[in-house]
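seq/struct pair 1
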Amino acid sequence: MGSAVRLGTGGTDFHALDEAHRDIAAHLDRLAALFDHLAVHGVDAHAQQEARRIEAFFTDTSQRHHQEEEAKVFPSLLASSDEALVATVRMLQQDHGWIEEDWLALAPQLRAIAAGYSWYDIDELRHGVEVFLELCREHIQLEESIIYPEAKAQAAKLARRRGELPPLKFTTEAPSSS
């Protein structure tokens, strides 16, 4: 992997954000596999363990990832004069809300599976998992194809500008107030 690109004074680490997307994609695959497993085997020890891990990941790590994007990646892009870019970022912000809402519907079912309960409705769970998987995968694809490249380009441009400016020089004398 290349070096980390940092944006703004908050220091967005795109390597970490890219790694988070890889982790999210892997857990989406695990969620799909868990559903397939449940459809065949029902709630067993494997399903319980997977449900526990998947639920913990999306409840914690995924939410922190979205908060970091909202705080460190999106603000500079929202300040852009490119209306299409701003509209895309606004849509991604809305996606974060939808992803959270969808997750709030799925999480209790996964916690129940992790605890060994099988009271879930398989058709309702199937629908919830499919919607969540599709939304998350499309969201990541949009971020990685448009938003991250633009944010990285802005960060590189800012770094070049900072490198071109001479360092500030301060004098030891205080300015006169008269």
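seq/struct pair 2
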Amino acid sequence: MKIPSFTSKRHILYGRFFSNSYFVENEEGSAIVEFVILALPLFIPLAIYLTTVSQTSQIQFDARNYARQVARVYVTSPSQSLVADRISVVTQTFADSIFLKDKIAIPPAINIWCSRTPCLTPGGKIQVSVRIDSLDSKRAASASVIESVDAWRSS
């Protein structure tokens, strides 16, 4: 009478589920699982970084655009008395369309420097510096623009 060996009984009891050949033959989906396990910890910080860079660049772009528009409004104003009203209209337009969407604190800080007195003297230069602050990311951006007053302007 032949006595069965331990290895043959183990093969009969456990079947092919615990043999090495089963795992080698059936690897369906393992690459996807490995990719997800390894990639998620890398992609999450990358997504956070790209979002932060995007927000920072958007705030900087808004500051440059706002400073440029304020400078244009200033140098194209018909008189010095209308400058403040025109700047407030530009600020309100930016607040309604851009600053609310990008969560920027209203009103932004504006500094205006004139090379000549009065500021709208033909051939003079106007420098507008703007600082805007983001409400959600606590970031700030500054921009400065220099515009020339038209040399043939009637003063």
